[in-house]
């Protein structure tokens, strides 16, 4: 049975979920960020296009999917490598490289594979390729960033010529849906063994099944993909003959490139560029709902922020409204929780999450209470160190706002500037986080399930950066994963959300829509952050 975690009944939805608020142009600056019109996708393409140039900002450190845990690599990788299941623009989950999945009991998933699927080197995908690709996440020597997705897996076996069976040690309600993200990616077993650590690098390359193949990686400049003419899904064959991804980190430079037409499109457009892009008449600025929220990750729960009262004080001192206006041009709202509203789904489960959200404290500044908490807890013996990327327009502002918040209540906060190309290491390398107490993230759920976000604080989670340990919380997550009923699972997840919010294991900042700009000659790209996981570039074509 295929799970569809989120179905949309209209072509757009608003942050507040009220259709009456969705009547203005997506390019207009809202007086209330909850009234920003959000689109799932842009109009479909009218025909093919020779080439597309797209800015991803920062050069990916790797295109090996086991390390694909950030926007730049996944934006590229999603067009080259595919998963057993496939996420759609609305985050619905459907068959991908698996044509069917059976779930005969709570501990078993059987994937029946499509026949005749060709890798980019012309060889045919087999069940051995699938089993080997999935098993990489369980290999400690590989060090997959996605190992948490396999925490409950006991075995992965080839069970027929076109079948792979996954056995679980404990029920896991998220596992099959995560097979639509990097945990379910399939590559050639022979290529993986031949290339070893060079797989996914400029010197090694890739050998997957997607609608594009990696043609060229010019270090420091660009990555070029060429259409894979033997692609199995003929109904979704790539419209562009080639796509070139360029690495323009500077906001001004990237905006100039979009306005001049040197670059056709980009996701994550900076708010400081909105006015110029709108005035240029060269393309369309679109906003879309996303599964991401902007948060401060508490990287060390034994350091200066070990006392929850100090974490709460710092949170209360933040000027989220001012930050949202300055950093996102008003297209954002202060966030009460880490999980995005776009992950809530529909029906009874959505009602549970909506009620739980309203029960959380409002994300409002309260300096008097913050100062009281500092007096009660006592100032830490050393400064609080916040890492801030010095790339883009928003990232430096986060560090500045945290430092200002500390100053408002008498806490010493130091900013450690980190280069954009090095910032991703904070999410995968404990050594990179040494001496850092906070770092910011636009954290996205990979599927439309809040439980996937709150699983981060399970003791064994790869993303448990602060080292939170609580047996009761672990049991809560385990029980939620084992619960088949969506509404009951939502109740358990809401309890986990309350714990994370009360303990401020991460400090929520704002919820923001995604931003997309495309030259008016092209259309077809999704406006949600589903572009991180499905071959979105294949749908781009001419607008006329």
List the helices and strands and how they pair.
Layout: E1 12-13, E2 38-39, E3 49-55, H1 71-77, E4 82-83, E5 85-87, E6 93-95, E7 98-105, E8 108-113, H2 127-135, E9 153-160, E10 163-168, H3 175-178, E11 185-186, H4 189-195, E12 212-218, E13 222-227, E14 240-246, H5 251-260, E15 265-267, H6 274-280, E16 283-288, E17 292-298, H7 308-317, H8 320-328, E18 333-334, H9 347-359, H10 367-377, E19 384-389, H11 395-408, E20 413-418, H12 420-423, E21 438-444, H13 450-454, H14 471-482, H15 486-503, E22 506-511, E23 514-519, E24 522-523, E25 541-542
Parallel strand pairs: 3-14, 3-15, 19-20, 19-21
Antiparallel strand pairs: 1-2, 4-11, 5-6, 7-8, 8-10, 9-10, 12-13, 13-14, 15-23, 16-23, 17-21, 17-22, 18-22, 24-25
Helix pairs in contact: 7-10, 7-11, 9-15, 14-15
Give an overview in words.
With 544 residues, this protein is of the alpha+beta class. It folds into three domains: 41-79 and 210-290 and 514-542, 3-Layer(aba) Sandwich (D-Maltodextrin-Binding Protein, domain 2), CATH 3.40.190; 82-198, Dipeptide-binding Protein, domain 1 (Alpha-Beta Complex), CATH 3.90.76.10; 293-511, Dipeptide-binding Protein, domain 3 (Roll). Helix content is 26%, strand content 22%. The protein has helices spanning 71-77, 127-135, 175-178, 189-195, 251-260, 274-280, 308-317, 320-328, 347-359, 367-377, 395-408, 420-423, 450-454, 471-482, 486-503; strands at residues 12-13, 38-39, 49-55, 82-83, 85-87, 93-95, 98-105, 108-113, 153-160, 163-168, 185-186, 212-218, 222-227, 240-246, 265-267, 283-288, 292-298, 333-334, 384-389, 413-418, 438-444, 506-511, 514-519, 522-523, 541-542. Strands 12-13-14-3-15-23-16 form a seven-stranded mixed beta sheet, covered by helices on one side. Strand 7 (98-105) and strand 8 form a beta hairpin. Helix 7 (308-317) packs antiparallel against helix 10 (367-377) and helix 14 (471-482) runs antiparallel to helix 15. The protein is globular and about 65 Å long. It starts with 11 loop residues before the first strand and ends with a strand. Residues 1-31 have low confidence and may be disordered.
